[in-house]
Amino acid sequence: MTETTDDRLRRVAAAVFRLPLEGVAADLREGETPGWDSVGQLMLMLAVEEEFGVTFPVEDLTRLRGLPEIGAYLEGRTAS
User: How far apart are CA 22 and CA 76, in angstroms?
Assistant: First the structure.
């Protein structure tokens, strides 16, 4: 079975924020998640870059503040 982008993002977020995978919703976002502060944001984005083999432009590192936004960004990159 192939993992979806959302599944992969949830797995990455669970690892970065040290949460059980079952506790990571697809709509997880900053401000609602322990440890998702400015340092957590950077750690998440670096982990997403590694998982998906992408490099985010600097301006997107701070703009993408939830798994739905990150997922949409990644889906848009792969569609083009």
Answer: 26
CA separation for the pair 24, 2 (Å, rounded): 19
Task: Supply the pTM of this predicted model.
Answer: 0.89
What is the torsional sign of CA 22, 24, 26, 72? negative
Sign of the CA dihedral running 66, 72, 78, 80:
negative
pLDDT digits (tens, 9 = 90+) for 3-24: 899 999 999 999 999 999 998 9
Q: Return all residues near 15 (Cβ < 8 A) that are at least 6 apart.
A: 47
User: What tokens appear for 74 in the block?
Assistant: 């990644």
pLDDT tens string 42-52 = 999 999 999 99
Amino acid letter at 76? G
Q: Are 22 and 45 in contact (CB under 8 A)?
A: no
